[in-house]
Amino acid sequence: MSTATSHFTPPARYTVDPSLAHRRATAVVTVRGADGAPLADADVVVEQTNHEFLFGNIGFELVAHANRLAAGEPTDQYDETFAERWFDLFNQVTLPFYWGTFEPVEGAPRTQELLTAARWFAERDVVVKGHPLVWHTVQPRWLLGKPLEEVERLQRERIRRDTADFAGVVDLWDAINEVVIMPVFTAEENGITPLARAKGRVETIRMAFEEARAVNPGATLLLNDFDMSTAYECLIEAVLEAGITIDRLGLQSHQHQGYWGREKTLRILDRFSRYNIPIHMTETTLLSGEPMPKHIVDLNDWQVASWPSTPEGEQRQADEIEEWYRTLLSHPQVEAITYWGLGDRGMWLGAPGGLLREDATPKPSYDRLHALVKGEWWTPPTTLRTDAAGRVDVTGFRGEYRVSAAGSCAGFTLATDAGDAEVTLTTAR
């Protein structure tokens, strides 16, 4: 997934396509039997098994569940239902690597716990992302008071350790998070803000990317931020001019104060597409209750005793979810969307931003998104007839497919750059 980018030439304005033709591909698939001979003049069933596009969500709530399953311990019905609905919709997960909770005691990281969860997702064909390797928030208290040189050494070691320990399971990382505000952050004392202030934003980013790439050269590394102002654009340009490779741009979109709308979303995408770096919408929240007041600057400052989901809000959320996803998929630079929380239980700020209610029942937004991802944007099982050379023409949404006949099957990838495919059927398990 790596994209080498040390400088940029602004491309022509990207053209959005609501028909999503750019999300589809066509290939000639040659089907062979177990003996290697073409399966001529035969009926075969072709069905999609996964999307190329990354429809993501966080998996924070399922880390303990995955570990209980691995240990053979009992799990409760809520977790079972939650997990079932998670896997029925998403194919990419973001797991929590906040340094302060990942390594609350110096030298005792929660590596095995997170690795068990990461493998559990990966075994179910889910792309796993770690979030984040460097951030100034949720920092370990034991880092306070250490000299800057020691903080930098420990941060570099942390990046290398975790990137190496999870390589092959977690190869997608938010390498560094929210650097625009990092050197001037004042909400809480931490060890990373003084380091970023001393090194500067660009060199702090270089540290994160170079240390991660040194131990996992194949990793896909994101620069991620919530600041959609020109400050983020200036930072990106400075990073590229410094010769630092950014694999993907992460754009956050916590819309607690109201839905951005299609026009604003497309304006933002056009601005950040000019670097010709694929875009991941890394953190999306849309509410099914009352929006947060506009005068709140730091979303963390909004603390309320109750923030309920409402019937009217749930319908509004469903409509916004549909337009949001349709808009993002229509833009060719977007290759991933991560929704920030599946259920209202444990939602950031206690907001009614989940697609499931507190009891794990689906809101209209879940059903609406499911109808898109696994309905309108999913190639259904189709019976096709091979020709005399065992060939069939397959057209569908880019992703993973399976072809089967007479109890045997084989998989293939449908992608714009994959070309035609040859598959040999094996006995289905």
From TrEMBL:
The keyword Signal applies. GO terms for molecular function: endo-1,4-beta-xylanase activity. Its EC number is 3.2.1.8. It catalyses: Endohydrolysis of (1->4)-beta-D-xylosidic linkages in xylans. It is an enzyme of class 3 (hydrolase). The keyword Aminoacyl-tRNA synthetase does not apply. SUPFAM superfamilies: (Trans)glycosidases. Keywords: Carbohydrate metabolism, Glycosidase, Hydrolase, Polysaccharide degradation, Signal, Xylan degradation. PANTHER family: BETA-XYLANASE, GLYCOSYL HYDROLASE. Belongs to the glycosyl hydrolase 10 (cellulase F) family. This is Beta-xylanase. The lineage of its organism: Bacteria, Bacillati, Actinomycetota, Actinomycetes, Micrococcales.
